[in-house]
């Protein structure tokens, strides 16, 4: 996969449309699109804990590695969001889920990255605000830190709801983007080898086993670099889909990770070979969190291989849920359904009808036991 030239934005968009159609993506009903011509505004639920949430964006550069997807860059660049507990209230601005530039690209990419589920029109993706506020001072004192790795093709911002919930109960949370993999990532500026501030995904629908291992290996290295860059000696990890796979493998490789949650990430490659984490008995707590709507034989095989070793590893399954229930789509998709921009079948295929708060209760309960505030 890394030997293929990266497609230009227009090439990717056209290819993505073809892929969406091949996957059976349904076009918006023209009447629905017209009714939403101004773009509906989506809202994220407020966190329920006693603390406010402060946000800081950081640009990190790992000069010891090159970018696997675009070697011309010469280094590995990352964007992260640091979220910390603050005094609740205040008038500081709320952090948008997407910057205006990211939202423009996501408007094109959304129905391709998540085909056939997300609508191609009718949503103002730039209007959604998180409940994290910029320019705030964190509460004094040392607090445990959790790192989050999003799913393949998702940006870090699609984990905003769960992150804010965890921060509101006292954890620090770091949302990590994986550029070249994430749908879109905006950087502070351009640099040699990257001529635009917003970098869009270079993942392709024909990814092979080698490409998948490159993606997971890069994500593991990204997470370990963030631990280094932030000077963390103890941390928890949680991740979704490919992020769950990377989190589990980083947990296996790095003793600084004291507990981890893999939210529906396979523990094997596309060729069926188990990752090292699934071959040995874990000696620290690891949670395998799945859904009844996305469970398949590959999960059963790779997760069962790890569970067979024993140790402090557990498997939990959310009822009436589907794969993206672990992301902000759990809050966004029901709004799209109510607006007529998604069908009931599309909602079920993406997030299910899981009760609100089920994911946050599961993850928060795990870290409350194994990395308490």
From TrEMBL:
A single MF term (Gene Ontology): 1-alkyl-2-acetylglycerophosphocholine esterase activity
Key words of the record: Hydrolase, Lipid degradation, Lipid metabolism, Signal
Range of residues in the leader sequence: 1-35
InterPro entries: AB_hydrolase_fold, TAT_signal
GO biological process: lipid catabolic process
The keyword tRNA processing appears for this protein: no
Name assigned to this protein: Alpha/beta fold hydrolase
Organism of this sequence: Streptomyces finlayi
């Amino acid at each position: 996969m890394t030997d293929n030239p990266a497609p230009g934005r227009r090439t990717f968009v056209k290819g993505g449309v073809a892929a969406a159609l091949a996957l059976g993506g349904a076009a918006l009903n023209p009447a629905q699109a017209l009714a939403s011509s101004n773009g509906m505004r989506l809202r994220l639920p407020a966190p329920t804990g006693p603390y406010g949430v402060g946000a800081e964006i950081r640009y990190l550069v790992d000069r010891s590695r090159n970018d696997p997807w675009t070697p011309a860059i010469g280094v590995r660049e990352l964007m992260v969001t640091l979220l910390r507990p603050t005094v609740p209230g205040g008038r500081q601005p709320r952090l948008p889920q997407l910057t205006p530039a990211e939202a423009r690209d996501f408007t094109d990419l959304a129905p391709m990255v998540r085909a056939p589920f997300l609508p191609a029109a009718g949503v103002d993706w730039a209007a959604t605000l998180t409940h994290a506020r910029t320019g705030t001072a964190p509460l004094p004192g040392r607090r445990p830190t959790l790192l989050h790795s999003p799913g393949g093709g998702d940006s870090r911002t699609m984990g905003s709801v769960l992150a804010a919930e965890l921060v509101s109960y006292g954890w620090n949370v770091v949302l990590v983007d994986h550029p070249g993999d994430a749908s879109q990532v905006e950087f502070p500026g351009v640099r040699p080898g990257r001529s635009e501030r917003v970098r869009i995904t270079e993942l392709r629908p024909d990814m092979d086993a080698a490409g998948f291992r490159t993606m997971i290996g890069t994500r593991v290295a990204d997470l370990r670099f963030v631990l280094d860059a932030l000077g963390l000696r103890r941390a928890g990890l949680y991740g979704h889909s490919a992020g769950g796979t990377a989190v589990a493998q980083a947990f296996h490789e790095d003793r600084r990770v004291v507990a981890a949650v893999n939210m529906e990430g396979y523990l094997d490659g596309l060729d069926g070979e188990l990752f090292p984490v699934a071959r040995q008995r874990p000696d620290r707590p690891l949670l395998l969190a799945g859904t009844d709507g996305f469970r398949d034989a590959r999960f059963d095989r790779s997760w069962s291989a790890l569970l067979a070793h024993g140790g402090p590893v557990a498997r939990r399954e959310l009822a009436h849920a589907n794969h993206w229930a672990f992301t902000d789509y759990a809050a966004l998709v029901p709004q799209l359904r109510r607006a007529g921009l998604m069908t009931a079948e599309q909602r079920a295929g993406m997030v299910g009808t899981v009760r609100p708060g089920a994911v946050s209760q599961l993850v928060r309960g795990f870290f409350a036991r194994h990395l308490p505030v």
